[in-house]
Amino acid sequence: MSKSSTTVEVRILDKEYLVACPQEEQEALLRAARHLDNKMREIRSSGKVFGTERIAVMAALNITHELLERDTMSLATRNLLRAMDNRLDEALGESSGN
To answer: What's the structural domain count of the chain?
Structure first.
């Protein structure tokens, strides 16, 4: 069954964009647009980056960096939990053998 698509209007840095989106994804699209708008406004207000295109690229880089850091932390957390689980298994194996 195909997902029905609708057009959603989002506003980013005072400019309106029409984006095709499945109805069930509308809220996620609006959240993403708000997040991007906030990031772009932060960058613009810093006064260090000029031009909408440059601001958009910097926002994309910042958001991508955040996502990659989150993924890295998740991987590190998984590895730590796996190591702890192995230690626990070893400790339980040692105590049940005694």
So the answer is: 1
